[in-house]
UniProtKB/TrEMBL annotation:
Organism: Solirubrobacter pauli
Name of this chain's protein: LuxR family two component transcriptional regulator
Annotated CDD domains: LuxR_C_like (cd06170), REC_NarL-like (cd17535)
Listed GO MF terms: DNA binding
Keyword Metal-binding: no
InterPro entries in alphabetical order: CheY-like_superfamily, NreC/VraR/RcsB-like_REC, Sig_transdc_resp-reg_C-effctor, Sig_transdc_resp-reg_receiver, Tscrpt_reg_LuxR_C, WalR-like
Lineage: superkingdom: Bacteria
GO biological processes: phosphorelay signal transduction system; regulation of DNA-templated transcription
Keyword Membrane belongs to the record: no
Keywords for this protein: DNA-binding, Phosphoprotein, Transcription, Transcription regulation
Residue ranges occupied by any HTH luxR-type domain in the UniProt entry: 151-216
Residues in Response regulatory domain copies: 5-123
Length: 224
């Protein structure tokens, strides 16, 4: 079994030590480095090439959002996923962090098993958004979406079913939930998600959520 390589970026030494203790206890997780600020996180990520960076939002020198933007702008053949860590679920930086390329959010007070599970989800290329953060995100999109959004390039290449799946992804539904709603298998959903991401030129589901609301494909409060 290949271990998931992790970099912990947080300005509080006790927080880093606590996360390292929890994560090193997992057989498939390997903490390869720690960073105390955003600049250090970017440099270490370039050097260590971790699979996932646990990135605190508020750090000295360079905040987690700009650090994420810089880190992902230099992504090569070894894509690094960024999982943002925050103390509050109604953080005002949620929207900008996801636009910067973060693959999801976790609250710092999550149980250890949820922290480990969240890292595995992100390492597999999935998005990770707590329900409370998803609600906040949709509110941000509602305020930020232009009155006459422009359809994204590649949208006309989506099939009717892929468009349905796209809207479900925008609502924050998991593959299992989408499969249940559309009465198809999870494997079929995974195939549709992979195809729509490819056609729209998106890296992951988080980018799909951002694009769906910014382009008006999904409308806050519209349900299905």
């Amino acid at each position: 079994m290949t271990s998931i390589r992790l970099l912990i970026a947080d300005d509080q030494a006790l927080v880093r030590a606590g996360f390292r203790m929890i994560l090193d206890a997992e057989d498939d997780l390997d903490v390869v480095g720690e960073a105390s600020d955003g600049l250090d996180a970017v440099e270490q990520a370039k050097r260590l090439k971790p699979d996932v960076v646990l990135m605190d939002i508020r750090m000295p020198e360079l905040d987690g959002i700009e650090a994420t933007r810089r880190l992902l702008s230099h992504a090569g053949e070894h894509p690094t996923r960024v999982l943002m860590l925050t103390t509050f679920d109604l953080n005002e930086y949620v929207y900008e962090a996801l636009r910067a390329g973060a693959s999801g959010f976790l609250l710092k007070d999550v149980p250890p098993e949820q922290l480990a599970a969240g890292i595995r989800v992100v390492a597999q290329g999935e998005a990770l958004l707590a329900p409370s953060i998803t609600r906040r995100l949709i509110e941000e999109f509602a305020a930020a979406t232009p009155a006459r959004p422009t359809p994204p390039p590649g949208l006309d290449e989506l099939t009717a079913r892929e468009l349905e799946v796209f809207r479900c992804v925008a609502r924050g539904l998991s593959n299992a939930e989408i499969a249940a709603e559309l009465v198809v298998s999870e494997t079929t959903v995974k195939t549709h998600v992979a195809r729509l991401l490819m056609k729209l030129g998106l890296r992951d589901r988080v980018q799909a959520v951002v694009l769906a609301y910014e382009s008006g494909i999904a409308i806050p409060g519209a349900g299905r």
